[in-house]
Design a protein that fits this description.
This is Ankyrin. By secondary structure, the protein is mostly helical. It contains eight helices and no strands. The longest helix has 20 residues. It is elongated and about 80 Å long. The chain starts with 10 loop residues before the first helix and ends in a 20-residue tail after the last helix.
């Protein structure tokens, strides 16, 4: 094919250009990226089981994902961890397109038993969580463990409070709750 370095074509580079959202390159890689410049399957997987659709979805390349789906990509295909493309979704617009236009399964569970909404919650993709709640009525996640940064902030805040008390001549054992005395026990 003129203008294409065929030595660089491979399934993994197909994944890269899909993640970049370059539809023209995706087309060329699918046409000439296989062994001996043969066609590649649109659902070709890299060494981790990712497909071009996983890549386009995980990098929020809406038009590339749409093109792949319109040309035969499997919306519910899984990678080596059992994740569908919806498990990698970072935007509500992408999630909506996958579910409403291409029938992605919002209840699909990966090898860890997690649904796409669980992954979105863990990754703080709040708009995706809000969208997927419509399909996952029983979603009631456990509170998140505080991050190391959040814990450090609490510790530093308490240290500053202790320093201020010491500088003001206050005892560190003083509490803010002086109303804890039980007035009903006047024996």
């Amino acid at each position: 094919m003129p203008g294409v370095d065929l030595q660089d074509l491979s399934e993994s580079t197909l994944w890269i250009v899909a993640g970049e959202g370059k539809i023209d390159k995706i087309k060329r890689y699918l046409e000439y990226g296989g062994p001996n410049n043969s066609k590649l399957d649109i659902n070709s997987k890299d060494e981790f089981g990712y497909t071009p659709l996983h890549a386009a979805v995980s990098y929020s390349r809406l038009e590339a994902a749409r093109w792949l789906l319109e040309n035969g990509a499997d919306v519910n295909i899984t990678d080596d961890d059992g994740d569908t493309p919806l498990h990698s979704c970072e935007s509500a617009a992408m999630a909506k397109m996958l579910v409403e236009e291409f029938n992605a399964d919002p209840l699909a569970k990966n090898d860890e038993g997690k649904m796409p909404i669980d992954n979105a919650y863990e990754e703080d993709f709040e708009e995706v969580v809000e969208y997927l709640k419509e399909y996952c009525k029983d979603f009631n996640p456990a509170p998140k463990e505080p991050s190391n940064d959040e814990l450090l902030d609490v510790i530093l805040s308490e240290l500053e409070r202790a320093r201020d008390k010491i500088q003001n001549g206050e005892s560190l054992s003083d509490t803010d709750d002086d109303d804890d005395d039980d007035d009903d026990n006047d024996n």
